[in-house]
Amino acid sequence: MNDVIELENITKDYGNGKGVFNVSFSVKEGEVFGYLGPNGAGKSTTIRQLMGFIRPQKGECRICGKDCFLEASEIKKDVGYLAGELSFIEDMTGKKFIEFIAKMKGVTDFGRTKELLDRFELNPKGKIKRMSKGMKQKVGLVCAFMGNPKVVILDEPTSGLDPLMQNRFVELILEEKKKGTTILMSSHIFEEIEKTCDRTAIIRAGRIVAVEDIKSLSEKRNKVYKITLPNAKIAEKFEKESGMIVKERIGNCIQCIVKDKVADTLKTIAEYQPVDLEIKTQSLEEIFMHFYGEEEDG
Amino acid sequence: MISIPLLKRNMACCLKPFLIIFAVLCMYTVVIIYMYDPKMADMLKQYQNMMPGVMAAAGMTGVASSLLEWIQIYLYGFLMLLFPLIFIIILVQKLIMGYIDNGSMASLLATQNSRRKIIVTQALSLILWIVILMSGITIVGIVGGQVMFPDELQIKNYIILNGSTLLMQLLISGIAFLTACICSQYKNYYMFGAGIPLLFFLIQAISNIGGKLENLKYITIYTLLPTSKIISGEGGILFQNMTMIVLIVLLFGSGIWWFCRRDLAL
């Protein structure tokens, strides 16, 4: 399959270690691609270069083979975009704004727009100025997907959405994926990417640390078992004899890091008569720490 | 070349400030024409003799021997420069700076309209609004003059005066426009886009006082609008008008050029 979005060694240095450095990755046609990284890692800076808002100091980025800065307006015919920091024309009502953007995009078929409004249960009659973050996010999503673009670039698409709407969003992405839309979405939440994306790039402090298949990344991810045992003595015994990797022990509480082997682990734990058990998935930061070494922070 | 939906939006969003500024200027134009009275002119002449500095700083010098001179002295020295300046600062803020500062430019650029198309649309909207303002005032002045003092106003010279004033306003818009195309934040825009025209305005006011200070006129653009010379009908303002046109083209041209290649932190 063709690469629809290509980034080759793009660099934009804002000084003080801010910016992006030698960022390269590509997104194939019909692929849903995640762009993961903590806040301030350079996700939005990368996306702004894709959108042609800023020009890379070095390197090239292309969408559908066209230069993102020089041929920006050509590219936009096929691209839907949701900004990370939403800012609309505040004195318009949501409805007016959506209609305005439709006209600017030359979209005449309002069927899709209406369907998106229904999907997100958005009543865009009020002034944008008075809208909550979540409502603005919905307006942004409607604008990004109207006119059925071939490529969609979403910067932190679910921020401000409640869990129900986040699910609606996931459904929308999965439907688009079936239709063959190429999607690039940034996020700092692994689960969000995990549910929808095929592959993901991980960026940290402006540098790409990995481009991974979601499946293999999920497999690499450990679980943290937080076990509360009857007393400190048993906890000590557990630490010495259970054979599990104990991350920390405070009194009768133990935290273990476990990969796969759910059945065996549970059996082992059961032997020690636990009072409570909590299982959590490693956070994105913890994956970084684990797989890419505990490099210098920031 | 331009985006029609954006042009429509520009016309709608600037209507309110236009109506306010237009109403104020109409009021001044009508009131000043209404106040025209050769006797009153004598009295104001006495004021000028008593406190020449104050009156001159407000651009009010000379003796009004006709209605047009009266209008030129009391409107075109100060009011017809200041209020359009305020209008221009608001327009550029609404049409360009606001979109850049709050990031909503991203919504416009995320559509298939090129940067050039967007910024040219904004520049044209700006020019259009100023032309509408100046034409409106000219019509009000002519009608007001004809109603209150039939056949007193030299309409041709009045139109030439407003034509030159229009060029001056466009020149100032050019400065504000270029500044907005370069700046990323309001504060810088206000500092330069509004500050530079205001500075010229103050220099003009000081140089009006006369004496040695008169030499300051060589460093203010308002010298390109010699109102008393224009209404005398002597001609010879072609050079000033041509200079203004060249500067307008240069300022708008470089604004557009810069906007098309700059980084936008959206």
Explained architecture:
The complex is a heterodimer of chains A (298) and B (266). Chain A folds into 2 domains: 217 residues, P-loop containing nucleotide triphosphate hydrolases (Rossmann fold, 3-Layer(aba) Sandwich), CATH 3.40.50.300; 60 residues, Alpha-Beta Plaits, CATH 3.30.70. Chain A is α/β, with parallel strands linked by helices. Chain A contains 11 helices and 14 strands. In chain A, helix 3 packs parallel to helix 5 and helix 4 runs antiparallel to helix 5. With 266 residues, chain B is mostly helical. Chain B is built from 12 helices and no strands. In chain B, helix 6 packs parallel to helix 9. The longest helix of chain B has 34 residues. Chain B is globular, with a radius of gyration of 20 Å. At the A-B interface, helix 2, strand 6 and helix 3 of A face helix 1 and helix 7 of B.
Q: Can you lay out the helices and strands and say which pair or pack?
A:
The complex is a heterodimer of chains A (298) and B (266).
Chain A lengths: L2 E13 L2 E11 L3 E5 L6 H8 L7 E6 L2 E2 L4 H5 L2 E4 L11 H12 L5 H9 L13 H13 L5 E5 L7 H17 L2 E6 L2 H7 L2 E6 L2 E7 H7 L2 E6 L3 H10 L3 E6 L2 E6 L3 H10 L4 E6 L2 H8 L7
Parallel strand pairs in A: 3-8, 3-9, 6-7, 7-8
Antiparallel strand pairs in A: 1-2, 1-4, 4-5, 9-10, 11-13, 11-14, 12-13
Helix pairs in contact in A: 3-5, 4-5
Chain B lengths: L3 H10 L1 H21 L2 H13 L1 H6 L9 H9 L3 H24 L2 H5 L5 H34 L6 H28 L3 H23 L18 H6 L5 H24 L5
Task: Write a brief structural summary.
The complex is a heterodimer of chains A (298) and B (266). Chain A has helices at 43-50, 72-76, 94-105, 111-119, 133-145, 163-179, 190-196, 214-220, 232-241, 262-271, 284-291, and strands at residues 3-15, 18-28, 32-36, 58-63, 66-67, 79-82, 151-155, 182-187, 199-204, 207-213, 223-228, 245-250, 253-258, 276-281.
Structural class computed from helices and strand pairing of chain A:
alpha/beta
Order of helices and strands of chain A: EEEHEEHEHHHEHEHEEHEHEEHEH
What fraction of the residues of chain B are assigned to beta strands by DSSP? under 5%
Strand count, sense and barrel status of the largest sheet of chain B are: none
The CA-CA distance between the termini of chain B, in Å, is 24 Å
The stretches of 5 or more residues of chain B where confidence is low (pLDDT under 50) are none
Just name the CATH architecture of the largest domain in chain A: 3-Layer(aba) Sandwich
The fraction of residues in strands of chain A falls at 25-35%
Average pLDDT for all residues of chain B: 90
Q: Going by CATH, what is the homologous superfamily of the largest domain in chain A?
A: P-loop containing nucleotide triphosphate hydrolases
Q: What order do the helices and strands of chain B follow? A: HHHHHHHHHHHH
Number of strands of chain B: 0
Give the chain pair forming the largest contact, with residue counts.
A-B, 28 and 24 residues
Give the integer mean of the pLDDT values of chain A: 89
